[in-house]
Amino acid sequence: MSGTPITLRGCGKTFDDGTRALHPIDLQIAPGETIVLLGPSGCGKTTTLRIIAGLESPDDGGQVNFGDQDVTAVPIERRNVGMVFQSYALFPNMTVAGNIEYGLKVRGMPAGQRAARVGEMLAMMRIEALASRRIDQLSGGQRQRVALARAIAPQPRVLLLDEPLTALDAKLREDLRLEIDRLLRSLRITAVYVTHDQAEAMALGDRIAVMSNGRIAQIGTPHEIYFSPADAFVADFIGAMNRLEGQAEDGRVRFAGGWVPLPPGAGASTVMFRPEDLRLVDPTQAQFSGQVISSFFLGDHTRLVIDAQGVQLVARVQDRRVFRPGDAVHGCVDASAVLALPSALT
100 phi and psi, to 5 degrees? Predict the structure, then answer.
């Protein structure tokens, strides 16, 4: 398969009852790119996906292009997109092979070619042994593999995935995340993946579009989104954050438990830093001090919740010692790790 570029221009969506689900957005997706639409419920990510699919029409003036083709008015059945849903949407009266074959039959592919293509898909998804099983005989992970095989069997121009792993348990989600990443890299198909799970977004996305209140708050690579968030909402949504509200003076922010340095040129804003950037140090090197409220040993690290004189901070430490509630701890954070951010983009 080869990727198809996608361009959205001024695509917004207002429903008949007046609800504005999506403010007009512009979005360009490169051929073969996997872009993840990430955000909380009601942020507009699924509406955006449905506009790309042709399940929703954008408001007047909005335009959807696949390559050089304007597909704004083209119905979903003629856009040649593959879709994978959270609910699988498989046909319960068909076998696994029958489900995979369905789209090929609708497109009029000859029987011999259909059989060969179904065999390819079964092998690709490592489900050859399930070919003759009914859907109700499958586990959740097996059903999702069948749904993926069915979606890509007709060689769609674009693959659209709407929260495909949400219904699965944590271990199975991790396994299928690896499978989907392998699949997308091998096919080099243009893919749009909707999720509210930041770990999925970081693992699968070439770029992530973080959405809030019907708008794109920021779009960038996982590295850019994590280390250079555009505002406090994006920073909070991608990983854990410590947030400080204090008095800025002399290049630092003071609070009850001590102070943290500000990055050069930082003005009035929300001051944030990540738990892994809070280092435990000797009292003589400390910028702030506090007491352990709770300690969670998670194998590769310990998560500490610290009370710094009324300010609650979270630390992620590799220290092998055992921490107990009430233990005194002393911390510091480098200015390069501190983010001074606007509360939200407008």
Answer: -65, -35
Assigned token pair, 243: 């947030």
Burial 137-170 (b: 16+ CB within 10 A, else e): ebeebbbbbbbbbbbbbbebbbbbbbbbbeebee
User: Residue 208 corresponds to which amino acid?
Assistant: I
In this prediction, residue 267 carries a pLDDT of: 65
Q: Are 292 and 325 in contact (CB under 8 A)?
A: yes
- Sheet harboring 81-85: ordered strands across? 81-85, 158-162, 190-195, 34-38, 207-212, 215-220
Confidence tier at 171 by pLDDT (50, 70, 90): confident
Rounded distance, CA 60 to CA 151, Å? Answer: 30
User: Ramachandran region of residue 113, left (φ > 0), alpha (ψ -120 to 50) or beta?
Assistant: alpha
The reply to whether the predicted model has a pTM over 0.70 is: yes
In sequence order, the β-bridge partners of residue 313 are 306
| Confidence band of 113 (pLDDT split at 50, 70, 90) | very high
State the DSSP H helix or E strand holding residue 185, giving kind and residue range, or none if neither.
helix 170-187
| Distance in angstroms (rounded) separating the CA atoms of residues 223 and 220 | 8
- Ramachandran angles phi, psi of 119, nearest 5°: -60, -40
Q: Which tokens in the block code for residue 5?
A: 């570029």
* Residue 65: burial class (beta carbons within 10 Å; 0-12, 13-18, 19+): middle
Looking at residues 306-332, what average pLDDT do you find? 93
CB proximity list for 112: less than 8 A, separation 6 or greater? none
Can you tell me the distance from the alpha carbon of 220 to that of 211, in angstroms, rounded to the nearest whole number? Answer: 12
Burial class (CB in 10 A: 0-12, 13-18, 19+), 181: middle
pLDDT in tens, 219-247: 999 999 999 999 999 998 998 899 988 77
Residues 82-94, mean pLDDT to the nearest whole number: 87
Asked if the model's pLDDT at residue 345 lies above 70, the reply is: no
Amino acid identity, residue 66?
F
